[in-house]
Write a structure and sequence with these properties.
The structure is a single chain. The protein is an alpha+beta fold. It contains 15 helices and 49 strands. It is 22% helix and 32% strand. A nine-stranded antiparallel beta sheet has the order 27-28-29-30-39-36-35-32-33, covered by helices on one side. β22 and β23 form a beta hairpin. The protein is globular. InterPro entries: Gal_mutarotase_sf_dom, GH38_beta-1, GH38_C, Glyco_hydro/deAcase_b/a-brl, Glyco_hydro_38_C, Glyco_hydro_38_cen, Glyco_hydro_38_cen_sf, Glyco_hydro_38_N.
Length: 913
């Protein structure tokens, strides 16, 4: 097969790939950005020979520049309007696997919103340096009105003269067809020669001749048409101001080729007008560089600086799974929806989502600033949550608790997941308050609070059923109110913490409780879940703990027994923030056979917990050769360093918990890390015989092979996950859920062991030079959480995947008082039932005021959504992730709809009120 014989056009596109922070802290890159845009604007002012510039697909560049140069707004606006500066469609260029589906949707939404303040966003699916791409990207692009994806990683270019398997992740050409799991297709443009293949074009004829001979040959090897793409720019690359002169030189040297200063829309139009789809390679699903040697995938950024991933997951969950749905309900009740705060919180969070940021592969200063941004976004989000839940609780009818007298403390438990929920809940209540404005001395106030009688109380639900619970007296506490109409109001109070099992709280709903004084009822006596200090059991699961802290899990429903769970593995790591490298011939250390200190931590009616402590002697670091190899820039797979003979104690504290109504076993591990250059993983052998497994990704649960491709030579086959990884066969399965632990591996050990990376410690950035990162050693204390969920072999229909998603989302609780209200004590505004659909989000549209709900089909088959709403509404409609175009949905009765959902479809339903 040969490229087209038509007269060739060399499309030279000016751009810069702008990592906001990476090998320099943000502000140092920021200064260089201001200098770049200043020079660019001056060049555009000088005439029209320099035709256009692509601002890297991210509108945050405009924000960053105008923060320092607000006086240049009109100049920017002029060239954006004229089409000489192309902006958007994203707010930032995010990592694909380490950011949630909803974060990617908000990224596209905000990028479009910001672009439209100046003009129109470029409809370019731009992923120049993303570390692999998720399978749902084609559908997300199509729903954004984008029919293409430009990317540099994930597919191996082979050249059209090579033999290619179109069923693999290779492409004969730079152009290919990329299909998502739902069938959505986009034109893929692979930067086969990277996004800098037209960088620094010479003006001098002799230099230009050598340059273009090489560059034209490189591009022609992969181009399927006569339209040749040259990217004039690279990472933080200044504008090539003499490009018009360089193009004139090229025209003189090659009169048979049309050299044009082009842009992406013109290039796409030319390619689409000439290409033959039948000749192009097709790839489907995830692009993870599956058909490479495995040494350059950058996959181990998933475990670099795990603390960042945990903070990110907390921030994402709080915004999309708590604040947005709670604020939506509060808006229905009359409270204003804080669009402006959401935009600010999302933008602040997303500033941590570029690949060099969230991947943890920058210098230490960058990641210190990230922690501050995570905190800033979370503080705004917590305020939205607190205000919204208070408005909701104030609307709940708690008057039914009035019959228990005046000494009643009602509260509301809210479940913001998409499934009904039962589980252990804790709430801190103010049993009594005395405001300082009431005139009591601090001594008198403190005495009254300390003398408060907390005896004779029971916990009841909305029907008056007495529930088993535990109470912890938190004693005298200081607090304050910040009223909307008066000065701050400080008070002293007596606080208690109640913990109990809340049952069957409806999806996106709530249930009411009260702590009351009632002498005629005693707390329920419920059998313990413990059998001695080593065995826990509920109606579905049994856990048996061994002397070394590992345990056996018996799934009483499927009859499957899982052995040797919870062993820890430790290996050296002489790699870097990008990639893991185990020292050659090193044998992994494990806690198997290492005697642990085991004791009962909790024995209540609703939960049993066992504490397991290890003092584990491991090497203190790599040996001195690693420092020499790092300084010499030895490529990490070629390093010979080993682990030090000096040792330190790695302290592990594991808490294994089983709830009375629990579907899984909770594991919380605290690591006191004193070692460097190493990795810690938790091992969960499944003994399930299968060649594939499933994993949670963005709006999808893809199937992945356990055995890598023949080209894969890296001994490690670690991969990305979001909420969980699952190993199943037709009869049984084990889902391992995690919170912010994005790296796993299914070991080829004969047992299909699921290995979850808990901590990875390295001392350098890696890549193109020596950038020491001592803080990436992650010394100190780290706590991680997981849940093991056994099931019958089908994670969807068994509810195991739903349980794993719920594991991500905390309960929301709110103390209130006795009052009338418009919301019933047990309430949800929505009802639906479908085991194939995963609920993703509930929010308000800023322009229309409409309510938007989103689900995605976890299965590869069609399914039906039957949905009912008790919220007064005019009509339902189906829309895209941009919430723009709408397709009315007919309903036979008010508040009800039935909708067919395609395989792996992401569906957004609007409710207009």
């Amino acid at each position: 097969m040969e490229a087209s014989s038509k007269r060739q056009t060399a499309h030279i596109i000016s751009h810069t790939h702008w990592d906001r922070e990476w090998y320099l802290p943000y502000e140092k890159h920021h200064v260089r950005l201001v200098q770049l845009v200043d020079a660019l604007l001056d060049k555009l002012d000088s005439g029209t020979e320099f035709k256009s510039f692509f601002l890297d697909g991210q509108t945050i560049i405009l924000e960053d520049y105008l923060q320092v140069r607000p006086e240049n707004l009109e100049r920017l606006q002029k060239y954006i309007t004229e089409g000489r500066l192309l902006i958007g469609p994203w707010y930032i260029l995010q990592d694909a696997f380490l950011t949630s589906g909803e974060a990617n949707v908000r990224n596209m939404q905000i990028g479009h919103q910001d672009s439209k303040r100046y003009g129109e966003p470029a409809k370019i699916g731009y992923f120049p340096d993303t570390f692999g791409l998720v399978g749902q990207t084609p559908q997300l692009m199509q729903q954004s009105g984008i029919t293409n994806a430009f990317f540099g990683r994930g597919v191996k270019p082979t050249g059209f003269n090579n033999t290619v398997s179109d069923g693999g992740y290779e492409s004969s050409f730079s152009e290919l067809v990329w299909e998502g799991p739902d069938g959505s297709k986009v034109l893929g443009i692979l930067f086969a020669n990277w996004y800098s293949n037209g960088n620094e074009v010479p003006v001098d004829e002799a230099e230009a001749k050598l340059f273009w001979e090489r560059k034209l040959s490189d591009v022609e090897k992969f181009a399927s048409t006569s339209e040749l793409l040259f990217m004039n720019g690279c990472d933080h690359q200044p504008v090539q101001l003499d490009l018009p002169e360089a193009i004139e030189t090229a025209k003189k040297l090659y009169p048979d080729i049309d050299f044009v200063h082009s842009n992406f829309p013109d290039y796409l139009k030319a390619v689409e007008g000439e290409m033959d789809l039948d000749n192009l390679s097709s790839v489907k699903g995830e692009l993870r560089s599956q058909r490479t040697d495995g040494w350059g995938t950058l996959v181990n950024t998933a475990s670099a600086r795990v603390y960042l991933k945990q903070m990110n997951q907390e921030g994402q969950v709080m915004l999309e799974k708590l604040a947005e749905p709670l604020a939506t309900f509060a808006q229905v009740l009359g409270k204003e929806y804080p669009h402006h705060l959401f935009t600010y919180a999302w933008k602040t969070l997303m500033q941590n989502h570029p690949h060099d940021s969230i991947c943890g592969c920058s210098v230490d200063e960058v990641h210190r600033e990230m922690v501050t941004r995570f905190d800033k976004s979370r503080h705004v989000t917590e305020t939205i949550v607190d205000d919204s839940k208070l408005a909701i609780a104030s609307a709940v009818n708690t008057s039914g608790f009035a019959k228990y007298g005046e000494d009643v403390l009602p509260f509301v438990v809210m479940n913001m997941t998409g499934w009904s929920r039962t589980g252990t809940v804790s709430i801190v209540l103010d049993a009594a308050r005395l405001y300082l404005r009431e005139g009591f001395t601090l001594e008198e106030t403190s005495r009254r609070m300390k003398e408060l009688d907390l005896s004779g109380r029971v916990l009841v639900d909305e029907q008056g059923n007495v529930l088993a619970y535990t109470m912890e007296d938190l004693g005298l506490q200081f607090g304050y109110d910040l009223p909307d109409d008066m000065f701050r109001q400080p008070y002293m109070c007596r606080r208690v913490k109640l913990t109990f099992q809340s049952e069957e709280v409806p999806a996106l709903g709530l249930r009411s409780y009260a702590w009351i004084r009632r002498t005629d009822a005693l707390p329920l006596a419920v059998d313990s879940l413990l059998q001695g200090d080593r065995v826990m059991e509920n109606k579905s699961l049994k856990v048996e703990i061994k002397d070394d802290g590992s345990f056996t899990l018996i799934d009483k429903n499927s009859g499957k027994t899982y052995l040797d769970l919870g062993v820890y593995e430790n290996t050296g790591d002489i790699g870097n923030e990008y990639m893991y490298m185990q020292p050659v011939n090193e044998q992994a250390l494990t806690t198997k056979g290492l005697k642990a200190n085991i004791s009962v931590l909790e024995d209540t009616s609703y939960r049993a917990s066992v504490e397991i402590k290890h003092d584990w002697e491991i090497p203190a670091s790599a040996d001195d050769l690693l420092d020499e190899e790092q300084r010499a820039l030895v490529y990490y797979p070629e390093r010979k360093a080993q682990r030090s003979s000096r040792t330190v104690i790695l302290k592990l504290r594991t808490v294994i918990s089983l709830e009375r109504g629990g579907k899984g076993v909770h594991i919380e591990t605290t690591i006191d890390n004193l070692a460097k250059d190493h990795r810690v993983r938790a091992l969960f052998p499944t003994d399930i015989n299968n060649t594939v497994h499933h994993v949670d990704s963005m709006f999808e649960i893809p199937e992945r092979d356990i055995e890598p491709a023949a080209e894969w030579s890296n001994p490690s086959n670690t991969q990305h996950q979001q909420a969980f990884v699952d190993m199943s066969d037709d009869n049984a399965g084990l889902t391992v859920a995690n919170f912010g632990l994005n790296e796993y591996e299914v070991l080829r050990d004969g047992r299909n062991t699921i290995a979850i990376t808990l901590l990875r410690s390295v001392g350098e950035l890696g890549d193109w030079g020596l950038f020491p990162t001592p803080e990436a050693q992650c010394l100190g204390e780290h706590t991680v959480r997981m849940e093991l969920i056994p099931h019958n072999g089908n994670g969807m229909t068994s509810g195991a995947y739903a349980e794993a998603y719920q594991f991500q989302i905390p309960w929301t609780v709110c103390q209130t008082d006795v009052h009338e209200g418009v919301i019933a004590p047990v309430y949800t505004p929505f009802e639906w039932e479908n085991k194939e659909l995963a609920f993703s989000s509930l929010k308000m549209n800023q322009e229309t005021g409409d309510m938007l709900l989103r689900w995605y089909n976890m299965s590869q088959k069609k399914t039906d959504l039957t949905f009912n709403s008790s919220i007064p509404q005019q009509h339902f409609y189906k829309t895209t992730i941009l919430e723009e175009a709408s397709q009315p949905i007919s309903s036979k009765e008010a508040g009800a709809l039935s909708l067919e959902i395609g395989p792996c479809e992401i569906v957004t339903v609007g409710i207009r009120r």
